[in-house]
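Appendix B, record 7
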Amino acid sequence: MAKKEQNTPQYKILLVAAVIVAIGMAFQFSSSPTGLQVLDNDLTAPKTIIQEARILDTTATFRWTTDENAESTFKLGESESSFSQAKEFAIRLDRLQPGKQYSYQITTCDAARNCNRYANTFTTLQQPPARTNNELTGAATTSLNKAQSSLNKLLFLLLLVTASLIVANAFVQRIQGKGIIPPAVRMSMLLRKSESLIKENKHYLAYPMYSDMRQLYENLKPAEKGTHKKRILDVYSELAAHAKAQEANVLVDKYLEGNITKPELGRLRELLEG
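Structure tokens (predicted):
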């Protein structure tokens, strides 16, 4: 019994010392750059989104954005251009050779030095575009700038809008069938709505309305047809120009990706020269 009483104080001292050492190691580990606090650091690289890629015969213009503030570097061959922290970037490349393929790389790094590299190629045009297509080329570029970054989101939006228009159209037709809205009044409503949508650059919503106007036009009286004919033709011209620009955008994307076929290239030239 005497021996046990002598060891008990030593045991307590060792236990207290072990606890103190463990607490000290835990504090050192938590304050160390390699401790658990690393989990709180930013480990996600910024995303690079190409907003515009306008390729001509001797020049090319690129505009891209990131989802967070980042430094960006654009590299073309041995040439390199650096940009300070921002979310929007643009560069114009001059003195390019017509009909030549170029490889480029965009590197973006955030403040935590998480970096993302985007690499792609483009091919310059064989010859400068004709002066008569400047307006159409500008329209195609503007439409490209406003295109959705995600095709899935765009398809979902189109499906949702289409379903809404079907329901709304069925409701209006039901009302019209009961004689509540005369054809001439409904034509005026459709024209005002479609013209407003075109001004808001929402052409895809105006296409179904134009189809309704075409059908409704046949039921108008001769005097009513003369009243609305010019406005209907103006709506048609706007929608036709927009449809051509959309088709040109798709072909431009294929051209930039190097996947365009000869018939598609001929169609693109036809659109640009038309």
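Remarks on this record: Strands lie at 48-55, 60-76, 79-93, 101-109, 115-123. The chain has seven helices and five strands.
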